[in-house]
Amino acid sequence: MNYDRNKSHYIVVTGILVNKAGKYLIVKRADWEKEFSGKWTVPGGKMEVLDYALTKKDVEDVWYNVLENSLKREVNEEVGLEIEDIGYVTSLVYVRHDGIPCLVVSLYATPVEENVKLDNALTDFAWVSLEEAKNYDMIGGIWEELEMVDKKLKKGDVRLGGWKSTMEF
Fold it and tell me: For all residues of the chain together, what is the average pLDDT?
């Protein structure tokens, strides 16, 4: 595995957005993107220090809800949506092509509206059912994350965080 032990992790938040009809928002990364070019995924991106540093601390020396606030910013930047009702799905690590590891925290949320406005790093979007999502060339593991959220929302299974592969690769 090609990674540099001396480099810090990037922290990335992703959001599985579920509309009132139970459909999931997936987006297609531009072909010029270095990581996962042309693949379908969910909105998200790197956490930034400014997601909290310029805001008032919640208690003495602490900011709360930093992942949630980062996700709100990223979703707004990437697809132009406001979100609410944010919950935890799972976490993972992958190593970028430049050797920098990324800690990804996957969350889910409800969009306040559904009028998607893509930024230039994305080329397409679709609101899909879990079954329809199988027809898209998604980044590995995303479908299983959608399945986890689907189970939670439809069956009341609250044991999120236990990702398991159900796809062959």
Answer: 90
Record the tokens describing residue 5, joined without a space. 């032990």
Q: The pTM is what?
A: 0.88
> What are the residues whose beta carbons fall under 8 Å from the beta carbon of 29, sequence distance 6 or more?
35, 36, 37, 38, 39, 40, 41, 121, 122, 123
User: How much is the pLDDT for 5?
Assistant: 62
CATH architecture of 10-155: Alpha-Beta Complex (3.90)
Nearest to 9 by CA among 131, 94, 68: 94
Instruction: Please state the domain extents for the chain.
Output: 10-155
pLDDT at 53: 87
